[in-house]
Predict the 3D structure of the following.
Amino acid sequence: MATHKPPVSAAKSVFPSKIPPQPPASKKTGPRADSAVTAVEMGARQREISVSEFFTKNRHLLGFDNPRKALLTCVKEAVDNALDACEEAGILPEVTVQLEVVATGPSAVPPVSQATRFRITVTDNGPGIVRQQIPRIFAKLLYGSKFHRLRMSRGQQGIGISAAGMYGQLTTGKPVKIISRTGPKAAAHYFEVQIDTKKNEPLVHENKQIQWEQPRGTQVAIEVEGRYQKGRASVDEYLEQTSIANPHVRLIYRTPEGDTKEYPRAYHELPPSPKEIKPHPYGIEFGMLLKMLHEAKSQTLSSFLSSEFCRVTPALADEMCIAAKVSPKAKPRDIRGAIAETLYQTIQATKIMAPPTNCLSPIGEKAILSGLYKQIKGEFYTAVSRPPSVYRGNPFIIEAGLAFGKAPDGATKPEKPAMPLAEGEQEEGDSELARVIRYANRVPLLYQQSACATFKAVLATTWRNYGIAQSRGALPAGPMVIFVHIASVWVPFTSESKEAIAEYDEIHKEITLALRECGRRLGLFLRRRERAASEFRRRNIFELYIEEVVEACNRLKGGKLPTEKLKAQLHKIASSRTGGIKTDETLGKTGAGPEGLPHSIIVTADGIEGDAPPTPHVSRTIVPVTEVPDGIRIEENRPSSKPGRRQTAKPAPAKRGARRDAAVPSFAKMGSVAQPAGAVRTRRKAQLTRKKR
């Protein structure tokens, strides 16, 4: 049987028996053939990035962008951890910081100004660290106990001390050396650890028990590349500012030159321990609420709201559920989609009490005054603590302080030799600008000043209203130090290096109000000092006429007056009437502190006025009237019966039958010579006549 075969041409067109040859894979065509990759190749290149690898390449985000700043950052992170540990354990902190120059290679140890490698050793008397946690705390990024809790603390992210160890590992290759002991009867553990940057896991090089003289505490030693220079934004300034905001801390600093500086404890009480709180409903976003609903362990929606958030009672939780048209007994995991969004909007629209403030530990006015007075020499100090406020559901407190002027003996200080200026340092002179020291949770902020909400609030304050010169858009001029501290459960830093505070409207407003109160007190002090100078000039004028007044009175009495005694008493009158001390009504004296300035200190050549630091009481004076022989009546200074009050003396009543013009009255308040009694009587009659008309 014959078979039908299709034409060859047709068969080739439908079922080609041979596939045309393809060009070799190596010979790519097209304008971008050399750089083209397939999706498979692109997918093969994708891999997980370790957080350690990320910060290794971007260490400037953590504050290690130059050697001088890197040295400061390492010291800061170690000291902050030590203070947090001591305060949480209820121990008055004692911290020792030691900087040592390390030789590179076989060469001799270079001088401090030329050194590029340092060993940082920080020792504290805290509670110590348990052995199992030491490697992870010091050699694993994003590991800590402070990130997930809402309470005030210096550390927040779990990056600081482990990042310092990572920087030392990158620049010197040396591990971090840790000694820790939890009690006198416990063993002291010694570790040498580094970070595995690919896995973000600790590598333990050595682990052993050693003999350590301290009964309790932790010591960490890191060898890093750095540059040491005194001045602004240096390790020295950081430790000085730390002692100002933490007067309960005893700091010992051993400099690279071999000197030892001690910042003694000025306040012998620990700050109140902050309590952990639940998040506030106003401080969460919609996505966070969905996550909390999905992970909730509560059986009902009402119990979830009342147990997972602060200031939400069971009754208020039921009201919010009913307002959102959701059953209070619904399961939290079943709330999703439009129902969850309605619930979120209802929560935000409900009036809820502000979060509690026992999660904060502010410094306090007296402690701020003690710190400023201890470290900064001036004439006037004041401190203000604002009431608690809230941003994004997070409670915070703003505290401000101010030190103005120079010490009374500042004019006799010897001139210092010219020294090279450090980064950000300026020459001090008559036209110097005010210095701003910023704090967040008691930690000094030394960099990125112009990007910080604190600095912007200082610039926005009109200091001219308080008698301080200020150019447009600049800091006030004069010998002044402005102190601003924010205490919060979560400080909104602008970057991971924790150097500047974000400018939330609520934070800016509270800082401005605190600075204005400090400015009002400073203005009152400056006006008082101007009045004192004016009164001193008046006293000099009075003293010019005392000789003539004494001679005139002596002639009126026929030369029988004791002129020397009268002259001395008239000098006392001039001093009491022109001493620059006004009455309580004029000064508006209220509360504690000098002359109507609560929580303030005034330093003069005669002593200190104020309630911090404690100083011997300086009594005020009253001016009683006494009788002088031969009919002359004068006033003299005597101690006040009530300290701190100035009392105005009343003239003694005349005896019955005595002549009214027998005595010559004392100086009038603004007069310069004594006037006869007849002239006074005539003037009073004229005044009464004008009133009747």
Remarks:
- The first strand starts at residue 94 and ends at 101.
- Residues 281-349 form a domain with the Helicase, Ruva Protein; domain 3 fold (CATH 1.10.8.50).
